[in-house]
Design a protein that fits this description.
By secondary structure, the protein is of the alpha/beta class. The protein is built from 14 helices and 12 strands. The mean pLDDT is 93.
C-alpha cells in the first residue's frame, strides 16, 4: 500500500547522512555508553547562551500576564524586533539604508531559505551553489519546483571556482546561493572572490533579462579564526539577500529564529518583502516564535564564547594530524572536512571510524565524495579521547590498501 508520495519515498532513501549518523550514534551510545562514543556527526551547538538570553527570558516570564502576551503578531515579526535587527544588520552589512521594513523574521535560516525560494522560484528554475554544500539545499529547491545545480569549489581550499560558476549560469538560473563560513568545509569566501562573483551575476542579469539573485546563507558569520573576516554581501549587487539565524551565535538552535534581509537598493524590494511575508505564512510557518523574537531583540550584540571553539579547533587539528589525516584548516564555522586516507571511499572510511565508535559524516552527503565531515562543537575531552580511534581507523584503511 502506497502511503507516501513517490517523491517523498525517494527522498527517504537519499535523506541526510547527518541525521542517519546521528541515529546510529544513539544506538552506539546505548550499547557502549555515551562516554565511550565520540560523536562528531551533528552540528548541534553545545555552548550555553550568553547571560543576556537568560535575563531576557526572566523578564519575559515576569511580564507574561500583560498584553500582548505570546499571541500572533504581523507575519514578518514584531515591528520592534525587525527594527532592532535591521540596525544591527545595517552595520554588519555596511548598508546604512537597511530598515525594519526590509527584514522578515523566519523560523530559522531554513525557514528563511524556503520562504525566499517559494517567493522567487518557478518550476524549471535552477539554484546554483558551490559544492560541497549543506545537503538540505536540494530539498529546499525541490519544495519550490526548482532544481539545485552544484558546482565544485576549488579542490583543497574550497574557494569559489568563478570560471565554473560563470559557465554554469543559464537562462534557467534564478539564484546563486553561497554559504560563508561554509558548512561543511569551514571556508570563508574573500572580498575579491565575492566581487568577481558579483560581476558574473551582473553580466548574467543583463544577458538573460531577469534578476539572478545572490543569496548568502550566514548562520556562522560570527565564528571565524586567525583574523579572518566575512565580507558583507549586500553592497555587491542590488539583487542580493542575506539569510541568517541565531542558532549558533546565541545558542538558540531549538528556538528557530532566523531572518531574511533584502537589499534596500533592489528595484521593487517592497514587492519582494511582501512576497516573503506571504510565503512565510502559506508555507505554514506563519511567524517566527514569539519568545525567540523577544529574546533575540534583547540579546542582539551578545554571543556565545567563541574562544571555546578556537581551542577545540586547535585540539582537533592536532588529533587529526597525529593520525596522519590531511585537511584544510577551517577559517570559520565549527567543522573540519578532511580527505579520506589515500582517497579511500568516504562511506567505507566512515564505517571504519564507526567501528572505533567515532561518528562522522561522509563527504558524499555534501556532494563531495572522498572527504568526511567532523564537527567540533563537542567537549574538548571527547576530541582528545578520540585520538586512538582515529589512529586505528587510519591504520585499518592502510591495511586495506588505501595508501
Amino acid at each position: 500500500m502506497q502511503l507516501l508520495a513517490a517523491k517523498i519515498d525517494r527522498f527517504l532513501e537519499t535523506s541526510s547522512w547527518i541525521r542517519r549518523m546521528f541515529e546510529a550514534g544513539i544506538e552506539l551510545k546505548r550499547i557502549h555508553g555515551p562516554e565511550r562514543v565520540y560523536d562528531f556527526s551533528l552540528g548541534n551547538p553545545d555552548l550555553p547562551p550568553p547571560p543576556e538570553v537568560a535575563a531576557a527570558l526572566h523578564e519575559l516570564a515576569d511580564h507574561l500576564s500583560q498584553p500582548p502576551g505570546l499571541g500572533y503578531m504581523p507575519n514578518a515579526g514584531y515591528p520592534e524586533a525587525r527594527e532592532r535587527l535591521a540596525e544591527s544588520l545595517a552595520r554588519e552589512q555596511k548598508t546604512p539604508g537597511l530598515r525594519g521594513r526590509h527584514v522578515v523574521l523566519t523560523c530559522g535560516a531554513a525557514g528563511g531559505i524556503n520562504a525566499f525560494f517559494r517567493a522567487v522560484l518557478s518550476p524549471g528554475d535552477e539554484v546554483v551553489c558551490p559544492a560541497p554544500y549543506f545537503v538540505e539545499y536540494g530539498f529546499y529547491a525541490d519544495n519550490a519546483g526548482a532544481a539545485l545545480k552544484p558546482v565544485p569549489a576549488r579542490p583543497g581550499s574550497f574557494e569559489l571556482d568563478l570560471d565554473a560558476l560563470d559557465q554554469s549560469i543559464t537562462a534557467d538560473t534564478r539564484i546563486v546561493l553561497v554559504n560563508s563560513p561554509n558548512n561543511p568545509t569551514g571556508a570563508v569566501y574573500s572580498q575579491g572572490v565575492l566581487e568577481g562573483l558579483a560581476e558574473i551575476l551582473g553580466r548574467a542579469c543583463r544577458r538573460h533579462g531577469r534578476p539572478v539573485f545572490l543569496v548568502s546563507d550566514e548562520p556562522y558569520r560570527f565564528l571565524t579564526y586567525d583574523g579572518v573576516t566575512v565580507p558583507p554581501v549586500l553592497p555587491l549587487v542590488p539583487f542580493s539577500v542575506v539569510i541568517g539565524s541565531f542558532s549558533k551565535n546565541l545558542g538558540l538552535a531549538g528556538e528557530r529564529v532566523g531572518y531574511v534581509a533584502v537589499n534596500p537598493e533592489m528595484p521593487g524590494e517592497d514587492r519582494l518583502v511582501a512576497g516573503l511575508v506571504m510565503t512565510n505564512r502559506i508555507l505554514g510557518f506563519v511567524n517566527a516564535p514569539a519568545i525567540g523574537q523577544r529574546v533575540m531583540t534583547a540579546a542582539l550584540g551578545s554571543e556565545v564564547d567563541a574562544g571555546v571553539y578556537r581551542r577545540r579547533r586547535a585540539v582537533m587539528a592536532d588529533v587529526l594530524s597525529q593520525a596522519g589525516i590531511t585537511f584544510p584548516m577551517p577559517k570559520g564555522a565549527f567543522y573540519f572536512f578532511p580527505r579520506t586516507p589515500g582517497g579511500m571511499d568516504d562511506t567505507a572510511f566512515v564505517d571504519l571510524l564507526m567501528r572505533q565508535r567515532i561518528l562522522a559524516v561522509p563527504g558524499s552527503g555534501f556532494g563531495c565524495p572522498g572527504h568526511f565531515r567532523l564537527t567540533f562543537c563537542v567537549d574538548e575531552r571527547v576530541i582528545e579521547a578520540s585520538a586512538e580511534g582515529f589512529r586505528s581507523a587510519v591504520a585499518a584503511a592502510r591495511a586495506q590498501g588505501a595508501d
